Amino acid sequence: MFHGRAGGHNILPFLEYFNASTEHQLTFIYANDRTYFPKPDNIEYHKFSFSPFKLAKLSKVIGAEYDLIWYHGGHSALILFIFSLLRNKKSKFIFNVWNEWLIHKAKKGGIKGKMFQYGISHADIIHCNWHGTAHVLRETGWNDNIQVYYWGLQKENFTNHTVADDEETNQFIATLPEDKVKFFFPKSISPNSRHDLVIEAAEKLVKDGLTNFIVYLWLGNTNEEDLLEKYSTQINKSGLSEYVILQKHGFLSFGDMQMIWKKMDAGLQIAANEQLSTTFLEPQFYQKEIVVTDILPYRMYNEKFDLNIPLIPLESEAVYNGMKSIINGNTTSKEDLLKRYHAVNDNFNFSGNIKKIIERYQKLS
């Protein structure tokens, strides 16, 4: 298995599963930081590097025969291309594409686009986490074997947590105001998530005299520094420092994140494009209000699970109206919140889904 990081909430459930598994052996290749150190450690780690000596050594690891080679993400077209070239052709090669924007970027061509297309066309299976990404990929014609297998929420979400693992969680919760509507947007800063529209909406709310709210832009693992600086400047110039918080933090456990979600009133998912992230699923699971943009993955979600989550245009005025409605007390019925909860609970449990995925892939090896 390859992923850029050996840590973070996206990859951690996989590492937890395979580390605890007595049936499977995992060789994990990563390019950046390794922050997951389980005890006992049943995973064989190798760090990817472009240095000639290390790359030559690593080529032997990549070229060994495995039942499955499972490539996550694809953010680096070059690394994906290298894996596609060096991997053992007797091994089933699965490319689990995480982001729709990778496909749009590759469609524009160029060297990176062609390397990305090569990786997709030479994979035995393209694994998508949601139907929207599969739809976009099928339109390219780059690969005919595109499968959709859901991931879901990590197991700690399904257990009630009342004691924090990290003191930072207690300190953050202690700062939360009781008399304000709290919006939560836990997402990395990138062009795919429109934090700028949230800031613009907040500015309009304050100008209209609606000041009983606070937005926590909970930063992700990878944040584009130029955008982060831009948003910080935007917040300060607009006089929003007490209403919109760029919340920096350490790595917190899934249980601690649950405790934080329970203290929030609403989730924000203002996405230009994405697959089906936990930022969309978590507020539904915790039966919170949600302000979410009208993009294909969410339209498909509404249709598949017979839900009626309001979807808004990707513009600051629409975000403003969505937030304003919640601030003014226009809440979703308990029946609809419960229906959303069941959609997530019944279909997006990672522990159950990973077992099904492995069983399906084992039949192919």
TrEMBL record:
SUPFAM superfamilies hit by this protein: UDP-Glycosyltransferase/glycogen phosphorylase (SSF53756)
Keyword terms, alphabetized: Transferase
Keyword Transferase included in the entry's annotation: yes
One term of GO molecular function: transferase activity
Keyword check for Transferase: yes
Official protein name in the record: Glycosyltransferase
Organism per entry: Owenweeksia hongkongensis (strain DSM 17368 / CIP 108786 / JCM 12287 / NRRL B-23963 / UST20020801)
Organism taxonomic ancestry: Bacteria, Pseudomonadati, Bacteroidota, Flavobacteriia, Flavobacteriales
